[in-house]
Design brief:
With 475 residues, the protein is mainly α. The chain folds into three domains: 3-66; 137-271, Cytochrome c-like domain (Cytochrome Bc1 Complex, Chain D, domain 2); 279-469, Orthogonal Bundle (Cytochrome Bc1 Complex, Chain D, domain 2), CATH 1.10.760.10. Helices cover 40% and strands 5% of the residues. It has 16 helices and five strands. The chain has helices spanning 3-35, 39-66, 73-85, 137-147, 160-163, 211-220, 230-239, 241-251, 259-271, 279-284, 293-304, 338-341, 382-394, 420-431, 436-441, 464-469; strands spanning 328-330, 358-360, 398-404, 409-415, 460-462. The strands form two sheets. The protein has a three-stranded mixed beta sheet with strand order 4-3-5. Strands 1-2 form a two-stranded antiparallel ribbon. A hairpin with a 4-residue loop joins β3 (398-404) and β4. The chain is elongated and about 135 Å long. Residues 1-5, 66-91 and 446-475 have low confidence and may be disordered. Bound molecules: heme C (2 copies). One heme C (HEC) binds next to α13.
């Protein structure tokens, strides 16, 4: 029994008791003396009138019950559940998942019931290989050995796996910027090699087009592995007799050991490093319980705020093999206070003519495992990366004026900074892009952070050159 019904009942009992006392008083003081009734007769009259009061109360109670005066909130909940059940239902060919939203606005579109047309895709379970370098088991095995072999570096101290720790650091190194031979540090953060096989452009600035081309770079890079020449690399491999057998198996008996074949074997191994085993992929494949409610809200925001305009397709990157429309994007695209705090303007990115700061859109798979983030590794909280992206890449930075130099017009824009709750929802979704296997081997990227949202509200002066360099327009 709930509070309202209890109140009603005690009120009723008090009223009935009062009525009975009044009836007895009336009989004793007024009615009985007037009618000259004594003894038992007095009590009979009192009982008759009292019974009248009781039956009247009983009638009232029945009427109240029937007309639902005592309806309980529990009943309303039950009604709502029935109503929800009337909405489109799961059918044999489709599944619907309902997610309550604790905020009224989740980017665009804003009208209730509007759906984004973005179609989510799962990662293929195999990476494509070029015709010039078909994948074979022998090549993958050889590539794995080479990838893990520190004797391919000048002082025999660093292998590819030193910086790309596949199992403990999600394929990166956990450092701000990479550390190579003799403890030398570079200027860029180490990206993961997991799912690099799906990328069309490699490196932060997108300067390599294939894994074969990329693999040669670090071997000869003076601050990474520091080998002086291609011949020196080949010599190191030839020194180990066991490599001879591995090359025979991979490329045919007596095949020459060349830098190209070394790189091709490493590339084949990298094509085996893919992670379709994520909660996101299971969700897209139909397992509706794979994502938590918060992750589903984050997924919706990821589309409605516009993240999908760059982090699109199965590999969450427009610079992937699935989407060759917009290989590089300007970053930061519009001014925010963060670029000073995190020194985001110091490196120039790709040297596209007339454009500074053009970067390849990175994949976001396993991103929760590969902090710190961004090209210079300056940001150590994933939530901050989300805020920076929303404000800098999509203009979700408050109520502000946008001056266009070309049209010489000022536009008033109302794109609120994502709320703390929304930021955390997106972070939760990004965690759903982590491989189940890799999460089991690492700490899962740690807890989502809960820092205060910096408020950005300023006049944005966006030069038109920068806007056009964005490629696809900001939604
Ligand atoms: C000293 C640390 C270090 C070593 C050793 C190293 N890498 Fe890297 N790797 C990096 C850094 C840093 C980048 C990004 C560089 C840039 O963008 O300019 C990178 C980028 C890559 C990428 C591109 C990933 C992407 O998404 O763009 C691949 C693939 C890769 N490395 C594979 C390898 C292979 C194969 C080897 C061994 C032959 C290797 N790396 C050795 C630090 C290292
Ligand atoms: C206009 C294109 C664009 C949009 C829109 C965009 N991003 Fe990015 N994103 C980039 C680029 C380019 C980088 C690489 C920046 C760099 O080199 O430092 C990046 C980097 C990131 C990273 C860090 C990756 C890493 O490994 O360090 C995360 C996380 C991220 N974006 C999430 C988001 C989220 C969430 C949204 C939506 C709120 C979003 N992005 C919207 C282009 C975009």
């Amino acid at each position: 029994m709930d509070f309202d019904t209890q109140n009603l009942l005690s009120l009723g009992i008090a009223a009935v008791a009062l009525a009975l006392i009044v009836v007895v008083g009336m009989v004793r003081r007024e009615l009985a003396p007037a009618a000259r009734l004594h003894g038992r007769r007095r009590w009979l009259l009192a009982a008759a009138l009292g019974a009248g009061v009781l039956t009247f109360s009983a009638k009232l109670l029945v009427v109240a019950g029937l007309s639902g005066i005592a309806a309980q909130p529990g009943d309303l909940r039950a009604n709502a559940a029935v109503a929800a059940d009337d909405k489109p239902r799961a059918t044999a060919s489709d599944t619907h998942v309902w997610t309550a939203l604790p905020y009224s606005r989740a980017g665009v579109p804003t009208s209730p019931g509007a759906a984004t047309t973005y179609v989510w895709q799962a990662l293929p379970t195999q990476a494509p290989a070029p015709a010039s370098n078909p994948m074979t088991a022998a090549k993958v095995r050889l590539g794995e050995r080479l990838f893990n072999d520190p004797s391919l570096s000048h002082d025999r101290s660093v292998s590819c796996a030193t910086c790309h720790d596949l199992f403990k650091q999600g394929g990166a190194d956990g450092l701000v910027t990479a550390r190579g031979i003799h403890g030398q540090t570079g200027t860029r953060n180490t990206p993961t090699v997991w799912n690099a096989a799906f990328q069309n452009l490699l490196f932060w600035d997108g300067r390599a087009n294939s894994l074969e081309q990329q693999a040669v770079g670090p071997l000869l890079n003076p601050i990474e592995m520091g080998m002086p020449s291609a011949a020196a690399v080949v010599e190191r491999v030839e020194q180990r007799t066991s490599y001879r057998n591995a090359f025979d198996e991979a490329y045919g008996a007596g095949s020459e050991i060349t830098l190209e074949r070394i790189a091709a074997a490493i590339a084949s191994y990298e094509r085996s490093l893919i992670t379709p085993d994520t909660p996101y992929d299971r969700f897209v494949a139909g397992d509706t319980r794979a994502l938590s409610e918060q992750q589903r809200r984050g997924m919706a925001l990821f589309a409605t705020l516009g993240c999908v305009s760059c982090h699109s397709g199965p590999n969450f990157s427009a610079a992937s093999l699935f989407d060759t429309q917009a290989p590089r994007r300007l970053f930061p695209a519009s001014p925010t206070p963060w670029e000073q705090r995190y020194a985001l303007l110091e490196q120039s990115g790709a040297d596209a003519p007339g454009v500074r700061m053009a970067w390849r859109v990175p994949s976001l798979r396993n991103v929760a495992l590969t902090g710190p983030w961004l090209h210079n590794g300056a940001v150590s909280e994933l939530a901050d990366v989300v805020r920076i992206m929303a404000a800098s890449q999509l203009g979700w930075s408050g109520h502000y004026l946008l001056w266009s130099a070309r049209s010489r017009t000022v536009q008033e824009i109302d794109r609120p900074l994502p709320s703390e709750q929304q930021v955390q929802d997106i972070v939760a979704f990004l965690h759903a892009l982590s491989s189940d296997r890799l999460v089991a081997l690492t700490n899962g990227g740690g807890p989502a952070d809960t820092r205060d949202t910096a408020s950005v509200s300023s006049v944005h002066d966006v030069a038109d050159g920068r806007r056009t360099a964005m490629g696809r327009a900001i939604p």
